Amino acid sequence: MANKSSLEKKTGGILGAIERVGNALPSPFILFVWLVVILIVLTAVLAAFGVSAVNPTTGETVAVQSLLTRDGLVWILGSLVTNFSGFAALGIVLLMQMAIGVTEASGLLHTAVRRAVLGVPTWALTAVVIFIGINGSIASEASIVFIPPLAAAAFFAAGKHPLAGLIAGYAATNAGFTANVMITSTDALLYGVTQEAAQTIDPNYTTSPANNWYFMIASCFVLTIVGTLVNDHIIEPRLGKYTGTEVDEARDATPLEKKALRNAGIFTLIYIAIILIGLIPKNGILRAEDGSIIKGPFVTGLVPFLLAYFVIVGIVYGFTVGTFKKVDDIPRVMAESLTSLTGYIVLVFVIAQFIAIFNYTNLAMVVAVNAAAFLDTIGLTGVPLILAILIVTTFVNFFMTSGTAKWYIFAPIFVPMFMMLGFAPEFAQAVYRIADSCTNPITPIYPYLPMVIGMAAKYDKKFGMGNVISMMIPYSFGFLIVWTIFVILWMFLDLPLGPGAFVYLQ
Could you tell me the pTM of the whole model? Predict the structure, then answer.
């Protein structure tokens, strides 16, 4: 019998069990269909037993409602379409995807990252790769594809082991995926789910895509420091000196691309100046009537401002470099960018039903009230509560890699529960994002794991899943530990999470 390959040997034990369980799960759509069915049956059983809770806000008794009744059937038939069309996050995600699609199709994102990575001194290279990788989520998951090989090329050019660059780029784009100095499509997607979950407690509660912005900006710099220390003191010493010859092309930007980048930079400065003109004066047009910025049209209309910026800066770059030839190219690439979301749109249909059922049946309120009461009884609040949420999310991430899919399940429980204990929905979202992000690169069923193994084989043909995961563990746990301490410190200092968003309910 032929010997097993090194990759096959390394997929046994716990990692092999995790991979087998993950592969045995149905697709997210089918999974949510089953969850909807289970939810309908569960609410019928709970309603039959008269399960209820007292809303601490209104003092009213809220009972679980069954959908297996005439009224329940009428509600299902009457709300099926509106549950989908009224899903808060759908429109914003589509808009952001179209906008970022223009910058990506123009070549701006790829050129800007390549120019940034290949143009830094050796002593700062690791930090720059980590920082750019963390912020690569502005291009969504596309950053996972193009940043690691660019980082490998940059490391080789600087006399470093290219695999160290590849690993650093992959770790940053995955373990730090949710952090960014900009508002991304992830922010736009998560906030809508958070808002709907919060409205089960307070129907008038609203939030914005910028609700974790300040915390995520600070997180970028904290994670960059952690990632740099991990790479320089653990990964590079372990890899040693590179003796191979295979490298990616470390091509610098062409003169035309540099000119296009310069034009895009000039437009960016003009765009920022226009915004500041509307924000700085006390009676500025982008301020609210009471003079505040937080309640003004800039914050409340942040998505349109981002939409306009990404579209126009992509147009400026694209027409300069020649990737766009005519105006008709713009709606074409915007339409093409949405093709990657077809699966998401289909998934949203069943997810919207799941969340609507959760809300209609009062199950979210009942679970939140009773869970909060239980946590209060055993004293699980504050730091222990944060740790409990992190542990649960981290564990589930090994079996369900989609961060948004998990939040659709967790938000109706976590958000109301946090609110019952005096924490703001935005804080629950921030805590969730930490655990969801950090363990991505060590999840065996993660869809991009085979990709990075293939990239690594270019430099070391024996480099397999075990090697990748073992080198990702220091990044994942380093990020998770430090980021957890950071969010706890943020909580104790009671710092704002974003414009108008706080740790505690105001």
Answer: 0.68
